[in-house]
Write a structure and sequence with these properties.
- The complex is a heterodimer of chains A (460) and B (411).
- Chain A has 460 residues and is α+β, with helices and mostly antiparallel strands.
- Chain A has ten helices and 18 strands.
- In chain A, 49% of the residues are buried.
- In chain B, strands 8, 9, 10, 13, 18, 19 and 20 form a seven-stranded mixed sheet that branches. Chain B has a five-stranded mixed barrel with strand order 7-14-15-16-21. In chain B, strands 3, 4, 5 and 6 form a four-stranded mixed sheet that branches.
- The longest helix of chain B is centred in the first third of the chain and has 18 residues, at 64-81.
- Chain B is globular, with a radius of gyration of 23 Å.
- The chains are: A alpha+beta (460), B alpha+beta (411).
- Chains A and B meet through strand 1, strand 2, strand 6, strand 13 and strand 14 of A and strand 2, helix 1, helix 2, strand 4 and strand 5 of B.
């Protein structure tokens, strides 16, 4: 941290402590205050010139109040002392009007962290020194990497960076703060698609491609040339897409797309969902419900991890959490409140870096071994029901034929149940996408239902 | 603060309301305008525009002593609705948003935007089966909007939608005729045509509709409108976020593609002097873009019964959880929570959890029947674009899409 950061963090921490004191003075039994300052800057380039420049500075305070067995959460961006005092004086009696909730208690000090955030390497001091010229130079490099494409309609290239400071104080002795930097390159292109056959609507399709990477440290970013190359490759791969067939077969999901399925699988793994009866997880815990190829760990202590943190939003010390071990669901996200409501052990309420443990082979080798099936490169929208696990997702991808990636397909849907899908997982690749908090390699599933062109029923 | 030069935008905001921080934000926004000159207005002319959502008492004056009994009443009604109902969540979200816009031409425009959204979520148990569903009821209105009749109707609706899931199954996989039920099926219009008609995509040529104005895109009985001035609808605004009056933009008139949805940048690009205000943003934290407000299809010449009777094997899509579109290729999906199987012209069984996939221009061409039972959906729909969420409304009469791909299961 720089001197400037240290001063800003001290200011935020004092603000949080001041809010807690005000809450106690206004009659709260306990209080937890979180003060945040979040600054970001982004430059977007299109057609050789800057299209947008955006600068944001967010500052705010969230206050959790525990008043006579009741609980309320309040937030404000007006941090002037007089306003804050009035705000809290109104919040305390407002909380008294709520129903009593004996399971709402302030986080016990036994759960507080003892280590500092330094080992997590959350701040890259070089990001604070970035100049406008450097950001614009990166935008130009990104644009230059795609500008030679003859079918290019439009390319948007952007550079974003930011710096966030968080400070927490509580009436039962918590005092903590940390900062986090971020930087990213992003690009989207649109190509004219004069693919096979005209569309029924008489329109001309555009093939879209995008790529991007976000990191905490500049050193971890891929090159601008690499982003441009990937963006163009992803768009070109969509040229000439046609609707794929209705079929059953093997589903291979690229690492970026696999995140959607893993995210849907983990979404109901919370004590909150279980408390409301909206989770298929309780019946799976400690059973061999899923494929033994699947192990998922939530690791908030990963150095330079996008969602790493020394403590969660309740002040619970960060620690790795094994969610699924060799196909056996082991634990769910449980904050202090929902743990008390469900009788589950307290873990954390905040997902961090969700890591799917990699396997042995990369995508190309897996495709050769699979022989025939469908490769998904992106999802086109859909839904998953956290209560039953029923899901249905539209896809963009390719037919796999004879161990090779063949024609691009659209207009197909994968339908099934997340429980049976992840029970049919036959391979996990060794190629995780590195620039998101949920890291998963290629996933391969067998016996999957695809809906596409064709139907066994007569069409009216 | 937004600085616009041609199609370039410098944008900045700060919640640190010190002069130094505000000046820094202004300087960053102005970096886009190097070399350009602006003349400051001699004075600002304050005014209000429209009165499309009057409320007797603003939400900021309604205390918990009135909100809690409302929630508790709905909770009691839900718990009494059926013995299978096991868990209930009732959520009331209200806002009293004030917007003040100052522009270089001296306008100082104010708007006060109320909104309320009541969400009802239910989990029911029958044997070892569990099913969940939800409904929402939203408006730019005050607490008086939530009458006993409206609340009871929503309770009955969510109970019925949830309990029918126990008997519902998935339809077969593949292509088949799809009846879009009156009301919320307009998710399809929102995705299949609405987003593609937002002029920011068209002025840079990335929408599939970029070259299609004036061309036939649907049958002559298909008219699609985006209208921002329907009283009390969640998508309604007295003025858009650039201070322009909202109104009626006809996207498709009798089958012909007519006009895009504009903000000031795109209107200037297309040389349009007067446009229906469609420039919106989630809040001061975001930049402005062309967005939808209330998107709907007008009534057609058929009846719902005629549509159902025309189908040998197909489905009726009735309730939805959302949708998505890729602007360039025009491919869209939307997700059906509840629906019905239609066999030999008759409704035969409930269905659930089906994704539908199609292509915007193709789906419009395949609308072969439109009924006369127009309905605006009362739910609280939220539209997402480039990381910004804004409330919108949707509606349509029953309509038949002759062929769509249904994400079913062949057993």
């Amino acid at each position: 941290m720089s001197d400037h950061d240290t001063t800003a963090t001290d200011t935020l921490l004092k603000l949080a402590q001041q809010a807690v004191e005000m809450a106690r003075a206004a009659g709260a039994n306990d209080a937890w205050a979180t003060a945040v300052q979040d600054s970001s800057l982004s430059y977007a380039f299109r057609d050789g010139k800057p299209e947008t420049v955006s600068d944001s500075t967010k500052r705010g305070l969230e206050l959790k109040l525990y008043v006579d067995g009741r609980y309320g959460v309040y937030s404000t961006t007006d941090l002037r002392e007089a306003h804050l005092r009035d705000f809290i004086r109104e919040a305390v009696p407002l909380t008294r009007q709520l129903q009593a909730d004996p399971q709402r208690r302030i986080t016990p000090p036994a759960l507080f962290p003892t280590a500092s955030a330094a080992a997590l390497q959350l701040v890259d001091p070089r990001i604070a020194g970035l100049t406008r010229e450097q950001r614009l130079a990166w935008c130009r490099e990104l644009e230059a990497a795609v500008s030679g494409e003859p079918t290019l309609i439009s390319a948007t290239s952007s550079v974003e960076d930011g710096h966030k400071l968080v400070a927490d104080a509580s009436s039962n002795g918590f005092s903590g703060a940390y900062g986090k930097t971020s930087v990213g390159f992003f690009q989207q292109v649109s190509l004219r698609d004069r693919g096979p056959g005209g569309r029924e609507g008489g329109s001309e399709r555009r093939a879209e491609g995008d790529d991007g990477a976000a990191c905490l440290h500049l050193d971890d970013l891929p090159s601008t040339a690499r982003i441009g190359e990937q963006t163009l490759a992803r768009a070109r791969a969509r040229l000439g897409s046609r609707q794929g067939p209705t079929m059953k077969g093997t589903l291979v999901v690229e690492p970026r797309a696999a995140r959607r399925l893993v995210s849907d699988l983990l979404a109901p793994a919370t004590a909150g969902n279980i408390s409301q009866g909206q989770s298929f997880w309780p019946k799976l815990i400690d059973t061999q419900a899923l494929s033994d190829k699947l192990t998922i760990i939530d690791d908030p202590l990963r150095p330079r991890g996008l969602e790493s943190h020394p403590y969660d939003r309740e002040g619970i010390a960060a620690r790795p959490l094994t969610l699924i071990e060799r196909g056996v669901p082991k634990a769910v996200y449980a904050d202090t409140y929902y743990a008390a409501k469900t009788g589950l052990p307290v873990t954390t309420g905040d997902p961090s870096n969700q890591i799917v443990q990699p396997g042995e082979r990369a995508l190309a080798e897996i495709i050769r071994a699979v022989g025939d099936g469908v490769l998904v490169t992106a999802w086109a929208g859909g839904n998953a029901d956290p209560t039953t696990g029923a899901f249905s997702q539209g896809l963009n991808g390719h037919i796999i034929r004879g161990g090779e990636i063949a024609e691009p397909v659209i207009g197909m849907i994968v339908t099934g149940n997340l429980k049976t899908l992840f029970a049919s997982l036959v391979e996990v690749g060794n190629d995780p996408f590195l620039y998101t908090a949920l890291r998963t390699p290629t996933l391969v599933f067998e016996g999957v239902q695809f809906s596409g062109a064709g139907n066994s029923h007569p069409v009216a | 603060m937004r600085v616009v030069v041609g199609d370039q935008t410098g944008f900045a905001f700060t919640e640190d309301l010190t002069p130094a921080s505000m000046l820094q934000a202004a300087r960053t926004a102005a970096t886009i305008a190097s070399g350009a000159h602006a003349t400051l207005p001699a004075h600002f002319d304050p005014r209000r525009q429209g009165d499309l959502y009057p409320v007797k008492r603003p939400w900021s004056e309604i205390g918990l002593n009135e909100k809690l009994p409302l929630i508790q009443k709905v909770e009691s009604l839900l718990r009494a609705a059926d013995p299978a109902i096991d868990k209930v969540t009732v959520q009331l979200t209200d806002t009293d948003e004030r917007v003040l816009i100052a522009t270089l031409d001296g306008r100082l425009l104010a708007d006060r935007r109320p909104s309320a959204l009541l969400g009802l979520m239910v989990t029911a148990k029958r044997g070892d089966q569990t099913q969940s569903n939800m409904v929402s009821l939203g408006a730019r209105d005050g607490i008086d909007f939530y009458t006993d009749d409206r609340l009871k109707a929503q309770v009955d609706e969510v109970a019925a939608r949830t309990l029918v899931l126990f008997d519902a199954r998935r339809p077969p996989a593949g292509e088949m005729p799809v009846v879009l039920a009156a009301g919320a099926s307009s998710v399809l219009l929102h995705e299949a045509i609405g987003h593609g008609m937002e002029a920011d995509f068209n002025r840079i040529g990335t929408s599939i509709y970029s070259d299609m104005i004036g061309k036939p895109v649907a049958a002559p009985f298909v008219t699609v409108v985006d209208q921002g001035n329907l009283p009390h609808e969640l998508g309604t605004l007295n003025m858009d976020d650039e201070g322009n009056a909202t109104g009626r933009a006809v996207l498709v008139e009798k089958g012909i593609l007519k006009s895009y949805l504009h903000d000031n940048i795109s209107a200037r690009h297309y040389g349009i002097a007067q446009h229906v205000g469609s420039g919106r943003r989630e809040s001061y934290r975001y930049s402005i873009m062309p967005r939808m407000t209330t998107t709907f299809m007008e009534n057609g010449p058929h009846t719902r019964d005629e549509i159902v009777a025309s189908i040998q094997h197909g489905i009726i899509a009735e309730t939805f959880t959302g949708g998505q579109v890729a602007i360039g290729p025009g491919d869209f999906t939307f997700y059906v929570k509840n629906g019905w199987l239609v066999e030999n012209g008759k409704i035969t069984a409930p269905i659930k959890d089906v994704n539908l996939i199609g292509n915007g221009p193709e789906a419009l061409k395949r609308i072969t029947m439109v009924a006369d039972d127009f309905k605006l959906d009362p739910g609280g729909w939220v539209c997402g674009k480039n990381g910004q969420s804004v409330p919108v409304s949707i509606g349509m009469p029953s309509a038949l899409v002759s062929r769509m791909t249904v994400g079913g299961e062949n057993v």
